[in-house]
Amino acid sequence: MSGIYARRTFPSPRKAARTAIVTASAALLSLSALVGAPAAQAAPPTPVTAATARTYLGELTEAAEGSTTGYSRDAFPHWITQSGTCDTRETVLKRDGTNVVTDAGCAATSGTWKSAYDDATWTAASDVDIDHVVPLAEAWQSGANNWTTAQRQAFANDLTRPQLIAVTDNVNQSKGDRDPAEWMPPLASYDCMYARMWVHVKHYYDLTVDPAEKSALQSILNGC
Predict the structure, then answer these.
(1) Contact of 194 with 184, CB cutoff 8 Å
(2) Order of strands across the sheet that contains 121-122
(3) 138, 179 in Cβ contact below 8 A?
(4) Beta strand ranges found along 133-205 (DSSP E)
(5) pTM of this prediction?
(6) Is 145:176 a contact under the CB 8 Å cutoff?
């Protein structure tokens, strides 16, 4: 007596394990999408090392801080168009944020920003400022008063050096135009990075340092 039976197949243990892993991974990805990935710390271009910063600091001209006579933020045109409809501020917001969504005009409509200066996290672009690491007035008093407007514009919109970073707005406002002898980020663990950024920018633009500023930077960099 003969008959035709449907043959049942069963996955091998190895295949079953792979299927379980893929299913679990997909579930984790879905959960991550719902919860949202942690915001990455704002990250401008990496500055020179502490050792190089110490060398650069020794090469900077030491001079008394200059006058603010004639200074105006308008002397440093910003924010300029960088690409398409995006200006410098919008470009840094996208670079330093996580999951940043922009509208047709390149304005950030959503996203998450983690400020390196105070470790605070924000979900509204209006709570974030773009800090000039070396402030415009500080640059003016350190030699930029002798630059052309084009040179000052390049400085104020520099995306290549570690001169621009997205940070908490009121922290940036508390800094004002002060140098490292007068102000440092509230998050002490960022001191070394901030000093490296500051010296990198000043050295590239051949700006001067005053005695108190140099002493503060030396102390920080020696501890890096």
Answers:
(1) yes
(2) 97-102, 108-114, 121-122
(3) yes
(4) 164-168
(5) 0.83
(6) no
